[in-house]
Input
Amino acid sequence: MTMANHSTIDFSNHTLALTLSDQDGRPVLDHRAYARLASELEEAARDDEVRVVILRGLSGCFCLGGDLSEFLDSSRHQSLIDAVTGMFRMLATFPKPLLACVDGDAVGVGCTVLFHCDLVFASAKSTFRVPFVDFGLVPDAATSILAPEKLGYAGAFRFFCLGEQLDVEGAARLGLVTDVVETEEPELAARRVARRLAKKPARALAQTRSLLKGDSRQLCERIDREISLFHDALKDEATIRRLARIARMAA
Output
């Protein structure tokens, strides 16, 4: 898979673009990447010059999920849990329009972050998969609430419990993808919409978005519950053996 590197962060036209990758430019998230993204989102929330945020991946691959090596090292679990919780809570409470542009595979957390986005632009080759149950884990990022709301219960059950991969058309039919982009890069389409949003009265836009999204406290409570179950699963020997086998296959 050929992937062109993006700068981790860039800002123009009141729009901040953040890249989902680790510090080595891989399309995975480790505890440092989670912490960096949480910090960048927190700063963006405070900065009046930032009116829209775009989450993007690398060209040809959006994000392949968490770094499995951290799942297998118990000495790194607490730093991972703290960083993951911080980023998910920032996503759940972020006060400004949040867009995503997907080009390629969105797997695990690379898919669940999309449920927090107001609009998701995806290329025709994009795919979506959440193999948590296959790994012996539970969903994250409050998707145990957000997925049934967006996909319907049966759609969420199939997606999470069967671990079925969705192509972009299937993701669009279910409502996970809002715009399928076939004639240009998804980021260009996202930036065009971001420019329109950035011109809106910021207070009215934020208030309207808040009303549409509802109370974030329930999401934060569910995030904590999911993380607790996730942490418990990482203490299970059968789960660790399963994850180690998957990590070897992926190497």
Q: What stands out?
A: Strands lie at 9-12, 15-19, 52-56, 61-63, 98-102, 105-107, 119-123, 127-129, 166-167, 179-181.
